[in-house]
Amino acid sequence: MKVLHSLITSGLLLSLILMIGCNAGDPFESIPPPSLSIVRVEPAENQANVPLDQTISVTFESDINENTLNRATFLVSTRSGTNVPGAIEYNSQTRAATFRPLIFLKAGERYEVNVDQVVGLNKEFVPPHIFHFTTTPVLLLESFNPRNGSVGVKVTGLGKQEIFARFNQSIDAANLSSNNFFAFEQSFGGETSFATKLEANLEYDDTIRRLTLNPINGRLKFSSHYYVILRDIQSIQGARLDEVSWDFRTDPVRINAVTPSTGSINVSTGTPVEIFFQGAVARDSVIGNVKLRKAFGIQQEFFFKGEPTFEQGDTKVTFQTRLSEGDPGLDSVTRYEILVNGVKTAQDEFFQEFRSTFTTGN
Asked: Could you give the residue ranges of the DSSP H alpha helices within the chain?
């Protein structure tokens, strides 16, 4: 009996072992397929300031089946879910798939890249992979000078101002020309004039991201209205600024003094009229634009004697009221007005209109 019991026990153990062995090889139980990974992405996960012409690439651990790579399995989209149109290339040597957008990416946008359902060359499973990046910020004009609508902008001396624009990021200055940043200038005062393009050079300082319009003659003109245009500016990352414009007026060039001085009385009837200008005058603009006339009534004009004389670097102009003892000169006990309007500088800038009065004696 003991022998029979041992045989029965051994048989049961053998049957149990055979059953376990049969379950381990069950043909209905799934076997996990081999897989391969994505080992590198570009741009990197959460990379910022990505250029707007950036291509997107993923590198696989081993070769893939190119037929499974398309715009449905390699998808680039914006934060709002808009798909980016593009072409996909695969390099079997580097095992890299590259997505080339057909349009520039948008500035300041967060993009999502989704690679899913790609299959290896030997039918390996590629786990879904999602990563993100953000493009370079929108190109902004942080400040510009002179301020829009400014009047009396200084062009010489203390407080002299320049035309410049400052940006929130570095710009592609190498490809700039006078078509991207320029100004028109129009003189005001005296008579109507046409606007002409300012002759200037561009200078860019990347340390402060400032683009300056430097006049070739070293300064802006007095008594001028400027219209500044900045357009088609691109950052080094590809962000663009379409167009910005502003205008300002420079300080008028002035007349510093006259003799007889304003309000003078008992002035001799043969006293010459002297005018001291802030800058050198254009001599041909003086004749006819400096008048002496009676201050009341029909304001009869007095015609100066001889030709004006120019001194002190053409900043002082003298007009004679009497050349000889035989000249009657000015009327006695009469109030006269000096009017200067239309005189220009040697740089074709109008002097500010000027009026002054004096009274002759007996």
From this structure: 2-24
- Tell me the C-alpha distance between 94 and 55, whole Å: 16
Tell me the pTM: 0.72
Given a contact cutoff of 8 angstroms between Cβ atoms, the answer to whether 144 and 120 are in contact is no
The answer to whether residue 18 is domain-embedded is no
Same domain, 72 and 126: yes
Domain count of the fold of the chain: 3
**What per-residue confidence (pLDDT) applies to 22?**
47
- Distance of alpha carbon 246 from alpha carbon 230, whole angstroms: 9
Domain assignment present for residue 215? The answer is yes
Any residues with CB less than 8 A from the CB of 257 and at least 6 apart, and which?
Answer: 275, 276
Three-point CA angle 330, 317, 215, nearest 5°: 145
Instruction: Report if residue 93 sits inside a domain.
Output: yes
Distance CA 257, CA 260 (A): 9
Q: Which structural domain range is residue 96 located in?
A: 38-135
**Beta-sheet strand order (sheet of 163-167):** 141-145, 163-167, 210-215, 200-205
Tokens 């070739």 -> residue: 216
Q: What pLDDT does 225 receive?
A: 95
Kindly state whether residues 61 and 74 are assigned to the same domain.
Answer: yes
CATH number at residue 67: 2.60.40.1220
Cβ burial of 345 (10 Å; 0-12, 13-18, 19+) is buried
Q: What is the tens place of the pLDDT at every residue in 67-126?
A: 999 999 999 999 999 999 999 999 999 999 999 999 999 999 999 999 999 999 999 999
User: What is the arithmetic mean of pLDDT over 48-72?
Assistant: 96
In this structure, are 115 and 145 located in the same domain? Answer: no
Residue with tokens 């420079």: 250
281 shares its domain with 351: yes
- Taking the C-alpha atoms of residue 56 and residue 58, their distance in angstroms, rounded to an integer, is 7
Of 135, 170, 187, the residue at which a domain comes to its end is: 135
DSSP for 203-227, written as a single string: EEETTTTEEEEEETTSSPPSSEEEE
